[in-house]
Amino acid sequence: MFRTRMVCVAIALSLAVAATRAVSDEPTSATKRENKLLGTWKLVSPKLPEGYVQLQHVTPVAFMWATYDGDGEVVAALGGSYTLKGENYEEVPEYGVSGDLLKALKGKTQSFKWKIEGNKWHHTGKLSTGQRIEEVWQRVEPE
Prior knowledge:
By secondary structure, this protein is of the alpha+beta class. The protein has two domains: 1-27; 35-139, Uncharacterised protein PF14869 family, DUF4488 (Lipocalin, Beta Barrel). It contains three helices and eight strands, in the order ααβββββαβββ. Strands 1-2-3-4-5-6-7-8 form an eight-stranded antiparallel β-barrel. A hairpin with a 5-residue loop joins β3 and β4. The longest helix is centred in the N-terminal third of the chain and has 23 residues, at 2-24. The chain is globular. The termini are far apart. Mean pLDDT is 83; it is low at 1-30.
């Protein structure tokens, strides 16, 4: 009986420590102020074909974008880690559903310049494949 209680206490302490670590990994309000890219963004330029939407989610440690059609079916997606230093934004794609694009970019640093104007994120640079990127994303606000 004593041994069972000790095991239960040990499990409870382990869970408490794990929960504390998970909470400490959450972004602080200072982090949110410093990293203006945190959040969800919708691509507004260049325009996608009618009925298609591309969203990008930026967390404190990762990015992920997905393009989906009018039926909600994802037709392309890419995600991985990123770093932000001043006006430099670098992504390293690690996973995705984008066929040849994933194969061409996976594990390679993609370098961009960024700036925020109002609720718009201007994102420019060149992919490691040589393709030029000039995008404008609009912050998605809660309804």
